[in-house]
Structure formats: C-alpha cells, structure tokens
Amino acid sequence: MNTKSALPYMLAGAAGALVASVTPLLISKSQAETKLLPFQGRLTDAAGTAIADGAKVVEFKMYDAPTGGNVKWAGEVHKLSVNGGLVNTMLGSKASLGSVDFSTHTYLQITVDANNDGQITAADPPLLPRQSVVPAVYAVVSGQMQYVVPAGGGNPASVAASGWEAVFDNGRPDTGRISGAKLANKTVTAAQIKDDSVGSAVILDGTISSADLSPALAAQLDQAAPPGTIIAYGGSLEFAPQGWLHCDGTAVSRAKYSRLFSKIGTAWGTGDGTSTFHLPNLQGMFLRGVDGPRDLDPDKASRNPNNGGNDGNMVGSWQPDELKSHSHSWTLGAASNPTAGDNSLINGYGFTRFINFGGNATGGSETRPKNSYVYYLIKY
Questions:
Q1: Which long-range contacts (CB under 8 A, 24 or more apart) does 189-196 make?
Q2: Per-position DSSP letters for 48-96, written without gaps between them
C-alpha cells in the first residue's frame, strides 16, 4: 500500500485560501497509543498568491460534522514556517490523537492567525468548509505492509484499531513479517504457498519433525527409510541428517522416540525398564545378518545380549571375537650322518632326530579384514 496518497481541498476564509493535503499515517500503536497525522498545505491570499515567507500560527481541531457538531479532538496550535506559501506539520505531536475514532466521520477545522497577533482568538475565524478526514484514507498504514490480518481472524479490511498490532512481531507492522506464534496450527496450506518459494534457507534447523508432516507424506518418507533403518554415514556427526541418531548405545526416551521404540523395542537394551530404551551400540563393530534357520553361525544360540536386550538367534545380540579351532602338523625326515651336538637318539631301528620347535609370534592385536571407519546411524 502507498502511504503517500492524499486528498487536496480548497479552504476559503478571512485569511484567504488554503490548499491542503492530508496524508494519514499510523506510526505505532505500541508506542503509548500514539497516532500521528501528517499535514501539508499552501497558504494564499484571496487572489491565489502565496503569502510571504515567515512564521504563521495555525490551530487544528476535529469535529464529527462539517459544521457545528461535537468536538472529537480539542486540537493543538502550531507555529508553522511558511516557505513559498507551503506549510507542513505533524498533528498529534502535542495533543494525543489516541482517543479519536477515525472509523467514523471526522472533520478537520483549520484556523489561521488572520490579524497576525501571534495567537488564535475570536478575531480569527476558522477556514471553511472543514476538511473531511476520510476513514479509508486513514486506514492506510505502513507502506511495508501488504495486508493486515485481525488477531481473532476475519476480514483483513476491517481490523479494529485495538487489535492490529497483535499479529505482528513486537506489535510493529514495519517488520514485514507475521510471527509463527500468531498463526493457528495447519492454517497455512499448499494453496497459500507459491511453488518453490520455501526452501531450506528459510526453515530453521530442527523446526520441522515427522509430527508436522501430513500422514500421507510421513508414510511416503517412512517407505524410503522406516524407523529402525541403520545406515553407514561418512560425514561428521555435527552435520548428521535430521531424523537420525548415532548408534552409540545411548539410553533415550521411549516417549520422545516413540516411532523408533515401536519398531526396535528393547532389542538393543532395556534402558531403565520403563521410560527409556537403548540405541544399538555399533561403535567398532561389524554387522552380521541374523542367521535364522540357515545355520551359518554355529554359535548363534550362545550370542550375548546388549544391556539386557535380545540374545541368541535374534536381532540386537552380539558375539566376541574368536578364532576358529584348528591345528598344525609337520612331517620330518630322518637325520643322516649325525654329528655331535645333534639332538638325536640312535636305536636298534636306525635313528630318529628330535627337534625343539620354537619361533617368533606374528600378527597384530586382532583378526580382521581390511576396513574403513564410518558412523552408523539409525532412523527414528
């Protein structure tokens, strides 16, 4: 909306003529209910010539009728500087306009110091006719506003003066935005949002969760990655995607992560038994598919539980590292031409050489394949 629109009027009186324009503006209701009304005009003599530059005393009042009627605003007197006949001031800067109801007929009466005695007296008749302050004009507010929504809902064109600031941040329309706290849940739909107008840059991190999604959209996302899905993540945990938790064995709330708890329960740990449950602890671990009836894991029945979770042939159980049982054998030939110092025993069947076996250990601190580190994350 343009706050520069104005209505010109020709006012005739003893002091000559006044061509005036009024540009109403609501500055801020949050500042002690202050309303200011900018006034601009041109003072001329009866022939239409601008009066001489200098100072001129002018009184402003408001009534509820073009003639007679009741006073709506007792008004104020301004000493205005005249420049080329032009004068301007801000009504309401001395006497508050807060009690004036501009939704009803309002007429501005202007009285100029005609006898140049520096004051407004009975000798200075008001300029007639009074100037109408049209409600539609006064309803123009900040040029930064596109529209005003009543705090209690309703037609945006009929906002009560006592309620418009409630829909804006800090009661000010010049912020150019309506705070989220003023919007009822699920009142903004796709029909009010322009295509491609809302991107990740304007959405605060962590402000949208699965609870804010429509059931249909949530179901589609769950099909892509249902709660309980575990992925290998190659980035920093600081930048882990929303909706995923690190598989570090932490005990978390059953209520807060109810979707995940409904899928994995206490398979990876019972938590406190009532309000929490354990996430998988996959730090430093390789993953192995549940053997089920396939019998590739001969020790599946003796697998251990995590934090009181599942054991045996069930998801969530674990095994320590181990080498498969094995033995080593050697074939030795008979020694010939033994010499002193050989560890040999000669008997009636020839001789057999006894050798002391020994050597240095080889290998590292564990048995493992080649590997790279990742973080395991679980969808909640």
A1: none
A2: SPBPPSEEEEEEEEEESSSSS--EEEEEEEEEEEEBTTEEEEEETSSS-
Cβ atoms within 10 Å of 177's Cβ, excluding its own: 10
User: Cβ distance 334 to 351 under 8 Å?
Assistant: yes
The helix (H) or strand (E) run that includes residue 218 is helix 215-224
Amino acid at 288: R
> For the purposes of burial, counting CB atoms within 10 Å of the CB of 110, is it exposed (0-12), middle (13-18) or buried (19 or more)?
buried
Quick check: helix, strand or coil at residue 138?
helix
User: In 10 A of CB 30, how many CB atoms?
Assistant: 13
Residues in the chain, total? 380
- Separation CA 85–CA 250 (nearest Å): 80
Tokens of 324: 């498969």
Structure tokens at 127: 């300029």
pLDDT in tens, 153-166: 555 444 444 444 44
Is the Cβ–Cβ distance between 378 and 225 less than 8 Å? no
User: What's the Cα-to-Cα distance from 12 to each of 74, 125, 134, rounded to whole Å?
Assistant: 22, 11, 20
Report DSSP letters for 239-306, one per residue. GPPTTEEE-B--EEETTTTHHHHHHHTTTT--TTSSSEEEPPB-TT-------TTS---TTGGGPBPS
Phi-psi region at 316: left, alpha or beta (left = phi > 0; alpha = psi -120 to 50): left
Question: What does the pLDDT look like over 210-261, one tens digit per residue?
Answer: 667 777 777 787 888 999 999 999 999 999 998 999 999 999 999 999 999 9
Quote the pTM value: 0.44
Q: Give the SS3 label for residue 220.
A: helix
